[in-house]
Amino acid sequence: MINNGFVSLEVAKLLKEKGFDEPCECFYISCDSSETLLREYFQNDGNWNEVDNGKVSAPSLYQVNRWLMNTRNMFVDVFREECGWGYMLVKADKGKEIDGVSGYKDYEEALLAGIHNALKLI
C-alpha cells in the first residue's frame, strides 16, 4: 500500500535494517496491534530509527531513491509502458541495468517495488 508518497511499513523496516539514518518528517508507530503512519508537525524532522522508541522512520519514496544513489551507488528508474509502469535498478556510476520489472498500475507502486527490490540486493 502506498501512503501518499511515503514508503510502506515493510520497506521502512528494511531501510532501518540496512542503515537508513536520515531525518524524516514521518514515522510508523504501533498502536493497538496495528501500524500507523504519523507525521511530526511540531518538531524538526527526526531520525526515528536512531532510538528504540517503537517508531520507524518513514521517508518519502524520493528520499529513499536519493539515499540509494548516494550511499549504495544505485537508483530506481521508473518508466511508462503500454501495459502500465515498470522500473529498472541502475548502477549510478556505470548506467548498467541491474534488474527490472514491469506491469505495475501506477508510478508510485513501481517505484516502491523497485526500492524494495534494491534493499533486498544490498
Structural notes for this entry:
With 122 residues, the chain is of the alpha+beta class. 30% of the residues lie in helices and 32% in strands. It has three helices and six strands; from the N terminus they run H-E-E-E-H-E-E-E-H. It has helices at 9-17, 61-72, 107-121, and strands spanning 26-31, 34-39, 55-57, 74-81, 84-91, 97-104. The chain has a three-stranded antiparallel beta sheet. It has a three-stranded antiparallel beta sheet with strand order 4-5-6. Helix 2 (61-72) packs parallel to helix 3. The longest helix has 15 residues, at 107-121.
Q: Regions with pLDDT < 50 over 5+ consecutive residues?
A: none
Tell me, briefly, the overall form. globular
What is the number of helices?
A: 3
How much of the sequence lies in strands comes to 25-35%
**Strand ordering within the main sheet:** 2-1-3
**Average pLDDT taken over every residue:** 85
For the report, how would you describe the main beta sheet?
Answer: 3 strands, antiparallel
Span between termini: 23 Å
Range of helix content: 25-40%
Compute the gyration radius: what is it? 15 Å
What sequence of helices (H) and strands (E) makes up the elements? HEEEHEEEH
Total number of β-strand segments? 6
Q: Which structural class do the helices and strands define?
A: alpha+beta
